[in-house]
Design a protein that fits this description.
The complex is a heterodimer of chains A (about 375) and B (about 300).
Chain A lengths: L9 H12 L12 H14 L9 H10 L6 E3 L5 E5 L5 E7 L4 E7 L5 E6 L11 E6 L2 E7 L15 E3 L5 H6 L7 E3 L5 E2 L4 E4 L2 H16 L9 E6 L7 H10 L3 E6 L3 E2 L19 E6 L7 H14 L3 E5 L15 E2 L2 E2 L1 E2 L7 E4 H17 L1
Parallel strand pairs in A: 3-12, 3-13, 13-17, 14-19, 15-16
Antiparallel strand pairs in A: 1-2, 2-12, 4-5, 4-9, 5-8, 6-7, 6-9, 7-8, 10-11, 11-20, 15-18
Helix pairs in contact in A: 2-5, 2-8, 5-8, 7-8
Chain B lengths: L39 H12 L9 H10 L4 E2 L5 E6 L4 E7 L4 E7 L5 E6 L16 E6 L2 E7 L4 H4 L19 E2 L5 H6 L7 E4 L4 E3 L3 E3 L3 H15 L7 E7 L8 H10 L4 E4 L13 E3 H16 L2
């Protein structure tokens, strides 16, 4: 996990040992294809990095480590990570966000417990009564999200607090807790049956991974124009990082491709009215969401490209906004792409690794040929 | 129905420090304790290990396998309890730790490969026990080994615009649980060794925090049984006879595991149950202070030695 932050201490070591001991003993899938193996190798360390909106540093460092050696990256004032390649017009931009949903400490109470505010939108009950991690300058501090002691007839809990085992404000602060510290719960990348996997923050680490995989396989010699890959910050709290990048580029880009989750209705709990994109059936053109509409001619063109390159591509409409929509006020066309995800913004998101490989192939094809 | 062998992590659990009908409540008085025989450093990993085990009530075999390995000379009786007799003569006393936990078994498998559940054991103090499953990782203990899965939850994004202020806010129950193990069909799920009656629990990832606090499902029971194992491993000089029992089905069928031990090995002059105080009881972060576990271990050694 995170190499750049101290997560030391006996407790974390013991947890790691327990996690290892809980690994499944059953072989869940046949031999992976090389593409699936590579997708997993890139994705897993990204998923296991922590980066609540405005605290994406560990994820940014993980992305840097996974870049091909030839790639020269730079970080802008907002914290977005850029890689530029190719020359000439039209300029095409790909953007995937690094941040994840979570909390921020707003108050340290006299009894040592922490009051929180959410960062991003999610179902609060999924954190209630679960292990917690407070990310501090001194490393991660373990604790628990305190379960409610009343109001048991409602699904939704009261505002959540965290208990780090401190009995006073002073003791909590002595552990390294401070106002503004971000809070998540421990997470793991875990393989399920076949080519499926579960974890938290696949949104949007899969997008981050797809950009990295595309860069690794890109034939730079074939590029006919400039391409910029951006790993953005603070998407979950209002597309803020993308806003900074869009303002910096202005009207220069011809197209922007937001690479983000296609929240799928492929679930026993969802209505099939829309968002119907089965997991495992390939990348998805996110042609209409709550923030942008892709012009139909661009969707058609994208489909032709995918067919020509033999890339699995679905087309659909889902909910949510995307970073590309921050570019459209500058006259840039947003052709958003994604992959189907089950159980979005939960600790148990589910993907199919074949879709990750498909999405990476599509990003590469667009960069090289469109 | 044929015999099903289910591989599980083993586990220990137990109710609060309670006593049998014939015994008085044992007061935990530090001043009367003998010197520590087992260091806290050696008990912590055992408590952590036990807290990572699963023993759904009535389906505790894997945990009892672990206990048999940890305690040479112990045996498993026909009900599944693990017992070990120490010393001889009178008085004859019983020191027991219930090891089971409330959990689930697979009740059905849908055509799309989702597992549906039935809860096993009803005695939980936390009214939202089932809701803790929603959107979280679970482990299914199939015939080929443990299989990771998740319990489906509605996607946050797809609820937008469909849930209005003041709308009903019903709690999640086990009847809403669809377990996704990555299978696309029932045949796929069965190929993983999963079938009806396979035990299932939240994925166990016990969490040490604070000053030697340990959180996890059934952490109190697990830690208490770890303390009992540690106490036995100190080889106490037992007064009379002490039957040490790790009992099954304490949360089902009228505590039949303990009843079985009494019937097969009793009568007993005194009965003591190992337990430690817990916080956030019956939640996924049930918390125990490992200092209390140390204290329990010392106190049980004293009790066995008749001091």
């Amino acid at each position: 996990m995170r190499a750049e932050r101290r997560t030391g201490g006996r407790a974390v070591g013991l947890v790691a040992a327990m996690l290892l001991s809980a690994s499944p003993s059953v072989r869940l899938s046949a031999q992976d294809s090389a593409r699936v193996s590579e997708a997993q190798a890139v994705l897993a360390p990204l998923v296991e990095s922590y980066g609540v909106s405005s605290a994406e540093g560990p994820v940014r460092e993980a992305v840097k480590r996974l870049l091909p050696t030839w790639a020269k990256s730079e970080t802008d004032t907002a914290g977005n990570l850029w890689v530029r390649l190719g020359q000439g017009s039209p300029l095409v931009v790909f953007v995937a966000h690094m941040d994840e949903i979570g909390f921020r400490v707003t108050t340290v109470r006299d009894d040592g417990s922490l009051e929180l505010e959410p960062r991003g939108g999610f179902i609060a009950s999924l954190f209630e009564g679960q292990p917690a991690l407070v990310h501090t300058g001194k490393g991660d501090v373990a604790g628990v999200f305190i379960p409610r002691d009343s109001g048991f007839t409602r699904h939704t809990p009261p505002p959540l607090r965290v208990d780090v085992g401190a009995t006073s404000r002073a003791r909590a602060i002595a552990r390294g807790v401070s106002l503004g510290a971000t809070v998540t719960m421990p997470k793991q990348y875990v393989r399920l049956a076949g080519t499926r996997a579960t974890g938290r923050s696949f949104d949007d680490r899969v997008g981050d991974a797809a950009l990295l995989l595309a860069l690794r396989h890109l034939d730079r010699a074939t590029l006919k124009h400039e391409v910029i890959f951006i790993w953005s910050v603070r998407e979950e709290i209002g597309l803020e990082g993308a806003g900074v990048a869009a303002a910096a580029l202005g009207t220069a880009p011809r197209r922007v491709h937001a690479i983000d989750t296609f929240v799928s209705a492929d679930s026993p709990l969802e209505l099939p009215n829309f968002a119907v994109a089965p997991i495992g059936a390939g990348a998805v053109a996110r042609a209409l969401d709550n923030s942008s509409v892709t012009p139909p001619a661009y969707v058609d063109s994208l489909l032709r490209l995918a067919r020509a390159r033999g890339v699995a591509l679905q087309v659909g409409t889902t909910n949510g906004g995307n970073d590309g929509s921050m570019f459209t006020p500058y006259g840039v066309v947003d052709v958003a792409l994604g992959w189907p995800l089950r159980y979005s913004h939960s600790p148990a998101e589910v993907i199919d690794l074949k879709d990750v490989a498909s999405l990476a192939d599509l990003v590469r094809a667009i960069a090289e040929s469109w | 129905m044929g015999t099903r062998r289910v591989r599980q992590h083993s586990a220990v659990s137990g109710p609060p420090f309670s006593v049998g009908r014939t015994a008085a409540v044992v007061t935990l008085t530090l001043a009367t304790l003998s010197p520590v025989r087992l260091s806290a450093q050696s008990l912590d990993p055992l408590a952590l290990r036990f807290a990572g085990m699963t023993a759904v009530t009535g389906l505790e075999q894997a945990m009892t396998d672990s206990l048999l390995a940890l305690l040479p000379g112990s045996t498993r009786d026909r009900s599944g309890n693990v017992t070990l007799t120490l010393g001889q003569g009178a008085p004859k006393r019983l020191l027991q730790c219930p090891l089971d936990e409330v959990g689930y078994v697979v009740g059905n498998i849908t055509g799309e490969g989702y597992l549906l559940l039935r809860r096993v054991g009803a005695r939980t103090t936390y009214p939202l026990f089932d809701q803790q499953l929603e959107g979280h990782r679970v482990t299914v203990f199939g015939s080929k080994g443990p299989i990771p899965g998740v319990v489906a939850v509605k996607s946050t994004h797809l609820t937008r615009g469909r849930v209005t202020t003041g709308a009903p806010d019903p709690v999640f129950t086990v009847d809403n649980a669809y377990v996704d193990v990555g299978a696309a069909t029932a045949t796929d799920a069965r190929a993983l060794g999963i079938d009806v009656l396979a035990p299932l629990s939240l994925a166990k990832q016990p969490l040490p925090y604070g000053d030697r606090l340990l959180a996890g499902p059934a952490a109190g029971r697990r830690a208490a049984c770890a303390a009992l194992v540690a106490a036995v491993q100190t080889k106490p000089k037992v007064r009379g006879t002490v039957v040490v029992a790790f009992t099954v089905q304490s949360l089902y069928a009228s505590n039949s595991g303990l009843a079985s031990v009494k019937a097969l090995l009793g009568p007993f002059d005194d009965i003591k149950t190992a337990s430690v105080p817990t916080r956030y009881t019956d939640t996924a972060v049930e918390t125990v202070a490992l200092a209390d576990v140390d204290r329990l271990e010392r106190e049980m050694v004293q009790w066995m030695e008749g001091r």
